[in-house]
Structure formats: C-alpha cells, structure tokens
C-alpha cells in the first residue's frame, strides 16, 4: 500500500499544481544562482514532507488505537468505501460537509503566516513556507490521510504521508522552474484520471480489509492464522 501512496502523490501533484501552484510560483528563490535555487527549493520540499509526515503520524496513531481494539480490517473496508463514495458523490453534495469550515480561523491565520513568509528571503523562510503549505486544506491530502489511518501504525502512517509528499515533488519542482507549463487539455485529462486512481486505491483497501488470502493484495488476518493454529492443537 505504500507504493500506492507515492503513485497517489505523483498523480495528485497535477491537482496540487492547480491548488498550491500560486505558492510555488511566488517562492522567493534566487533566480540568479542555480545552486542556491536548488537548495532553497529542497528546503521548501523538506518543510512540506515534515508537515505531511506529522499529519500521518497523528492519524496513524488513530489507526493504531482502532487496531488495538481489533477494528483494523473493518477500518480498511470503511476507508475504502469512503474513498469511492467521495469520488462518486457530486461536488455540490460534498461541499455541504466542508471539513474546513470549523477550522476557518486557524486556516486564516495559517494563510496569513504563509503570506508573511513569502515576503522574506532568508533560508529558514523556505522551510516555513513548505511546512505551512503542507497543512493547507486539500481534498487529495484528505484521501492520503485515509490511507495513513488504515495503516494502523504511527510509523506506517507517517511513512505513507511522507511517500505521498515525495510523489508530489517532481511536478511541484517543475512548476517552480517553469511556472504554468501545462495546457488546459492535459490538465483536464489528468484531473479525470485522478478519481479513477482513487477508486482503485479504495477497492484495494476494501480487499485488504476482507482478508481473502490473496498475497500482497488481501492477506489473511494474522489473528485468524493464530486462531487456526491454536485450534489444531
């Protein structure tokens, strides 16, 4: 499932360029010094990766607590269903349940801090911009969070979000260098592909939860294996 996190980030980065592209375009990088520019962009991505990893760590702990109570299989199925439902439901229906509204004040302060950081050009500024950028509301990040919860482990959850972030690096870096380099047709095709991939990931989570004994895709739950071994004695 960790591989899916990277692919999810890679495909989702086309959406990220549209949502976070303005931030990438406005990064106060030194365009007169290539080496310094690369370092500044790397620090920006490091900040984003730390933010994503922190989010994954927190939600991985949530998944772990559910795993302790024996709900990991059910959780995997529920998350897979949620992923598919979110994709299939009309946008207007989803917007009625906007999760960002309760956090509106926090998000406003986050954006204000981000705006202030964009005006500076010190080395630590790029890390701050990237870190704050990672906490901005994003539908694809929410989907990745589902994956970190389903991991059932704090470390795995953090790694899942980290790999998601790594997947976004190539295109986000290209956006910083080239600006608005994708034409509308290509963007539309990729945007259509993202929901399909989310559905595929959702199905994989459901299969994983069902524990059908399919290697790597739907392995048999460890608890069942232990119980069957005990019964044999």
Q: Round the mean pLDDT to the nearest integer and report it.
A: 77
Count of DSSP-assigned helices:
10
Largest sheet: none
Binned, the helix content reads over 70%
Strand content: under 5%
Unreliable runs, pLDDT <50, ≥5 residues?
223-230
Overall geometry comes to globular
Topology:
Layout: H1 2-25, H2 34-68, H3 72-88, H4 91-95, H5 104-118, H6 123-134, H7 139-150, H8 154-178, H9 184-210, H10 222-232
Helix pairs in contact: 1-8, 1-9, 2-6, 2-7, 2-8, 3-7, 3-9, 5-6, 7-8
From the structure above, extract its key features.
233 residues, mainly alpha, globular
Structure description:
The protein has 233 residues and is an all-alpha fold. It has one domain (2-232). It is 79% helix and 0% strand. The longest helix has 35 residues, at 34-68.
Briefly say what this structure is.
The chain is an all-alpha fold and 233 residues long.
